[in-house]
Specification:
about 400 residues; 14 helices
Length: about 400
């Protein structure tokens, strides 16, 4: 018999015993669907990482007030990061393009007439717009003259301008931030919501000197942003900045840092969310489930060999060879695992499409889960189908027909 005839016989046998086929296939469906979800979530995490790295900038180094490892946010209660630190970086570090300082306050009250809101307020150097690649869509940005004269001017984020002024052009109007009156100088171009879900358009940008002396009454910074001339310089520059600030802040290991240096690498590490260890563990569990499903299928097939002795004997009596019987049972096991992999892949894809709607997890559809599912199905089908196929082929046809 040729392979197509053997495959047809195997398929007819599976269709004739639907419950047995379902019981053999269900384990593969569950394992492959779990594996598909894990891989699509991992792919989504990789996409999220790429977006965050792109958003942060591969040439950027951020020095935050407050210690910590990896991607940390500035800590408002830490007052050790100063303008002098930014000046020292400018004078000591080679290969920098922009060094800009920021003093930030969150949830500050803003008011125009009877309209009120809260916003993050960023007191910045004049080169902040270039460092952030964030120019004004209307009016102008913060200038060197504004910082030199402690000007009470501000540039609003698009959503803050919308909430306070509606559809009116706010440029030239006055706004209160806290208890200080500012003249609106411009409106920033709209930014997309960050990969982490943060809306950066609810902000006000003011001159650094104005913020530190007239609004915040402080002499420390929230963070310093350094843009290097090339991404290749970032690792060495980050190490040099750490050493410089250790000397300036008189920090001697094992004393903890009162600052953190963040690069695109730290952003990527934090954005992964699901650690590599967890992903490996989940994949190992899915692989174990596949092995268990293969073992269940093998035992049911072995039971089927005993129940189908007369069928096997009859086929041998009318001319089927041992090889034909062997190939039929092997085709049955392969068909079961391939069908299970197909159904499991579709189920896993459906779950992966649903998860981002009800959770914060991201999914990324690609060909890898489907290829891996097919490969696993073939391996499991062959590995656990060999013993039943061999036992069926070795049965004596005369004994089977008695």
């Amino acid at each position: 018999m040729n392979l197509s005839s053997i495959s047809a016989e195997a398929l007819q046998s599976l269709v004739a015993h639907k419950l047995r086929t379902f019981l053999m296939m269900i384990g593969t469906v569950v394992a492959v669907s779990a594996l598909t979800v894990i891989l699509t979530m991992e792919k989504g995490t990789q996409i999220e990482v790429a977006k965050r790295v792109e958003s942060f900038g591969t040439r950027l180094i951020k020095i935050n007030a407050g210690g910590g490892k990896g991607y940390t946010k500035p800590q408002p209660d830490v007052t050790t990061l100063r303008l002098e630190d930014a000046d020292a970086i400018r004078s000591s570090l080679a290969g920098w393009d922009i060094v800009t300082s920021v003093a930030q306050r969150n949830n500050m009250p803003t008011k125009v007439g009877d309209k009120q809101s809260t916003a993050s307020v960023y007191a910045v150097d004049a080169d902040w717009h270039e460092a952030m690649d964030w120019p004004a869509a209307q009016g102008d940005g913060i200038s060197g003259d504004d910082t030199a004269t402690l000007a009470r001017v501000c540039v609003l984020g698009a959503d803050l301008a919308k909430s306070l002024f509606g559809n009116e052009n706010p440029v030239g109007s006055d706004i209160y931030i806290g208890k200080v009156r500012f003249a609106v100088k411009g409106v920033l171009i709209r930014h997309d919501v960050t990969p982490g879900g943060e809306n950066e358009n609810i902000r006000a940008v003011i001159p650094l000197t104005t913020g530190m002396r007239r609004l915040y009454n402080q002499d420390h910074l929230s963070y310093i942003r350094v843009r290097m001339e090339s991404a290749a310089q970032v690792p060495a520059a980050a190490k040099e900045i750490r050493q410089l600030l250790h000397e300036r802040h008189h920090i001697v290991p094992p004393q903890e840092d009162d600052f953190s240096v963040v690069t695109a690498g730290e952003v990527a590490e934090a954005a992964r969310g699901i650690s590599l260890t967890l992903v490996r563990l989940l994949m190992a569990l899915a692989g174990l489930a596949l092995l268990v499903s293969g073992a269940v299928m093998m035992n049911i097939l072995l039971l089927g060999v005993s129940q189908r002795r007369r069928e096997i004997g009859l086929r041998r009596a009318i001319g089927a060879t041992r090889r034909d019987v062997f190939m039929q049972f092997l085709c049955e096991s392969l068909t079961i695992t391939l069908l299970g992999a197909a159904v499991g892949s579709l189920l896993g894809w459906a779950v992966s499409a649903l998860l981002p709607r009800v959770t914060k997890l991201k999914a990324g559809v690609s060909w890898e889960p489907f290829a891996l599912a097919a490969a696993c199905a073939i391996v499991i089908g062959v590995l656990f189908g060999l013993l039943p196929a061999h036992r069926a082929a070795r049965l004596n046809p005369v004994d089977n027909l008695r």
